[in-house]
Amino acid sequence: MTTAARAKPPIIILKLDDVSQQNNALLPNFLRMTKLLEARRIKGSYGLICNVKWPGAQPLSDSKEEYYQWVKQLQAAGNVEFWFHGWDHAAHEENGEPHCEFHHRTYEDQKDRFDRSQKIAYEKLGFHFKTFGPGGARSRYESMDANTLRVLAEDPHIHVVFYPKPLDEPARQLAAKGKTVLTRVPNVNLERTTGLADFNFFLEGYNQNPAAHYFVLQGHPNPWTDAHFTEVEKILDFLLAQNAVFLTPSEFAAKQNP
User: Fold this and answer.
1) 92 vs 8, 102, 136, CA distance in Å?
2) 3-state helix, strand, coil in the chain (%, to 5)
3) Which terminus of the chain, N or C, has fewer Cβ atoms within 10 Å?
């Protein structure tokens, strides 16, 4: 497949979801992903869940010191930014219908989830989250709502928002309040669907969007097999050959709003 010509190399923000401690150990695929990034000298970002309820998972408030040190060291080195991916990432029901964590909850409930998470992150990791991205895979509904946007506008630590769809009026209003809103190009991604990394899918979407200034490339490393990691490596090596610039979300925001 011929690669479309671009006026200049794109900026790439790698959005890798669902970090927690599992079975009192570090997640092996995130360790593998970290080595992959380090070998290529590129940057990425990891979405951390603070109170995940998955079987065998440990909350951030009660994880092992090894986990805290791993997060602290990566964050301090500057090549990986840990961002807020939710208090528990859990779906909830209203009138028998499922909704994502940050959809169809009151302002007070959502603010409490942000506040508790920021407090625990600072206590255990020594930093507040600067970037937020909602979970959305568990529901056919929106992943955030007006109450989420209000909380985001008020949170003094959050400066960047992974917005899960193209720019719309609520996103513009959030940007007007000083937040950097990182939107998505739906068909340009590490994965064809959640957990299934696919180079050809990425390349087709990439070639269809030669004017895009940046791409947020989402992935879920936990279920990746060796074959999926091979696909991810092909994507990263292709982008390096394109002279793409890899930035963390906060670095991107700083360049847009110096």
Assistant:
1) 44, 10, 12
2) 40, 20, 40
3) C
- Contacts for 174 with CB less than 8 Å, ≥ 6 apart: 149, 152, 153, 161, 163, 181
Of 61, 67, 64, the residue nearest 87 (C-alpha): 61
Question: Amino acid identity of 90?
Answer: A
The three-class DSSP label of residue 173 is: helix
* pLDDT confidence of residue 135: 87
pLDDT < 70 positions in the chain: 1-2, 137-141, 258
Q: Which residue ranges make up each domain of the chain?
A: 11-256
Backbone angles phi, psi at 83, to 5 degrees: -120, 165
Give the model's pLDDT for residue 258: 59
Rounded Cα–Cα distance for residues 60 and 119 (Å): 11
C-beta separation of 117 from 145 below 8 A: no
160: closest CA among 78, 47, 71?
Answer: 47
Q: What is the CATH number of domain 11-256?
A: 3.20.20.370
H or E stretch at 37: helix 28-40
Dihedral, 43, 120, 18, 159 alpha carbons, nearest 10 = -50
